[in-house]
Structures are given as C-alpha cells and as structure tokens.
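INFO batch 0412 | record 1 of 1 | parsing
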Amino acid sequence: MVEIWIVRHGEASSSWDQEADPGLSILGQEQAEAVTQEILKTFKPAKIVSSPLKRALETAAPLFEKLDARREINSNIAEIPSGDIPFAERRAWLNKLMKETWETQPENLQVWREGILSTLKSQTEDVVFFSHFMVLNVIVGFLTGSEKIVSFKPDNCAITKVSLADGELDLIDKGREAQTIVR
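INFO prediction complete | emitting tokens
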C-alpha cells in the first residue's frame, strides 16, 4: 500500500483574480512551517511533489529543507486552468464553475481532472503532494463519488490522506475544512 498525503498550500499573498502566481502571505509562511512539523511527526515520505505555482512551492519549501526525500515538480497538480480569462473576470468564472458538475465541463477541464487522478494512481511509494483547492476537490469528489466541482472546502495547509493499493485509491481522511476564500 502507498500512502499519499496532499497538502493545500498556505494562505496566498494576493487573490487569484489579482495575480497569476502569488506566493505566500506571512500567515501562509507560518502555516507552511506548522504543516511541515505536523508531517515530520508522523510521516516519512520517499518523495515530495509540488505544483509549480509559487504558493505551493513556498508551502513545500520547509519540508524540502528538513526531509531527505526525492523532490519533484509536477504540473498535473497545478490549480485549475483558467485559460485566457482576464483577471477581472476570473472570480465570476470561478464562482459559476464551483456551482457546476463535472459532466458539463469542456474537454480541457476533463483532461486536467484526469491528469490529477492519473498522477495519484501512478504513485509507487509514499509521497506528499503540495497542491491547490480545486485539485483537492477533484480528488475528494472522485473518491466520494461526487460529480460536483466543489464537494468540500479544504483549509489552508490541511492534509488530505489517500491510500493506493492494487490500483485503487481510497480516501483515508479528507482533512480540515474551513470557510475559505479561494485565492
């Protein structure tokens, strides 16, 4: 059995509709340190994988520094692609999307979703992923049988735990939820 832990990034320094790739706020940096300590207490992954986006990379940085594990950057676990939608229109697009279901989505979003699930299913050793709100919703929605785009609201630096055995993913713990603003 392979254990897969997926950490939502810490609080971003600006919102998703204001900056394409924000880093972490001061609180987000503190959250990254805290989740690193939480992981080190109970889990020793062979590999650490991060989304290429700054807020995920900065959340992963303390664990990269403290744990001797292979490191990887994987664009399959980056946040949902917004394409050419201008910043001023992103929040409205995302708010609308978050109320929808997967069966009504265009091919590019279906491909993005399948990339996330394929990445999880391809793991062969214990791993921690540092990723994003919508990625976690893909995973939890799939594992709970929900077709909703948003099936839960993971808190910043919450850990979702999944196992993989004989090609089958199983949800162990979806992690902390919070009333959160998607950034």
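INFO post-check: Residues 50 and 130 are 5 Å apart (CA to CA).
INFO record closed
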